[in-house]
Amino acid sequence: MLDVRRLRLLRELSLRGTIAAVAEALAFTPSAVSQQLATLEREAGVPLLERTGRRVTLTPAGHTLVGHAEAVLARLEQAAAELADTRRGPAGPLRIGAFPTATRAMILPALTSLVDRHPGLEPMVVEIDPARVADALRAGDLDVALVHEYDFVPTVAEPGIATSPLCAEPMYLAGRTRPPESARTDSVLAGCRNSPWITATPGTLCHAMTIRACQAAGFTPRVRHQVDDFATVLSLVAAAQGVAVVPHLGIPTHPPAVSLTRLPLRRRTTIAHREGATHHPAVRAVTRALRSSVPTELTPLTDP
User: Start and end of every HTH lysR-type domain (predicted)?
Assistant: First the structure.
């Protein structure tokens, strides 16, 4: 009989690439991960891993088993959701991941609704970069999370993760002067080709969005500052340190010296959780609370 815990380790190895990364993510030692995978190979009766020096890759049989592991883990998540549904209302810890602007604009009002309607729930919020959410969900560190994607930077479907759209918000060019009203998006951005730019830090979706939007307008931005906090970004713009592209939720207030020009670009926020957990009562409860907490100036989104 194949052990589910070992199947999870194999799935994580297929996603993370190294035994060390799996061990770090799941709080194991590398030797413990190796031992568990070796035991799984004996249970399977066929080689699942190929070892070349320090590198480990999956064999064709290993990849096949990972596909089955995804289905098994999703079905177990579904079983847990159905069992939880037999209890009297959502209860217990609920770990919610979110990016900072969503925490302020949507998570806080959603928590108020959750506490009022489901006093047995114990929501716990963790701010996390959307790029790390899938790993945290699969590892069980989060139960549900808000993630985002930008025009020019679509998200890639993650194994073991289910998503549903929540809302969309406009993007703005922040500068010291306002471009002509007749300027098209590409010419608005192109008009800043010689300006210094303020972007998020490399590796974030926001950074990639700015770079790609500028490249689509025909130039690569000359980056002077790399800052993730939008309030600080706007302060830098006000201090004539450069221009930036910011989302609506990143500008609840802005310095008087900053001019905002709306662009036909959007950031979309999505609710993510483990595959199979859609009907878990706690996931349903937080999803309803989040949908009721979307600011009126944003565009609500639903599944197609």
Answer: 2-59
Distance CA 109, CA 63 (A): 43
**CA-closest candidate to residue 190, choices 180, 200, 203:** 180
Contact 263, 173 (CB under 8 A): yes
Tokens of 273: 């959780």
- What is d(CA 160, CA 109) in angstroms, rounded to the nearest whole number? 29
For the chain, which domains are there?
A: 4-84 (1.10.10.10), 90-165+270-300 (3.40.190.10), 169-267 (3.40.190.10)
Of 64, 65, 7, residue with least CA distance to 36: 7
Successive 10-residue mean pLDDT values, the chain, 304 residues: 84 84 82 86 87 80 87 82 69 92 94 90 92 89 94 87 95 83 66 94 92 94 96 95 96 86 93 92 93 94 78
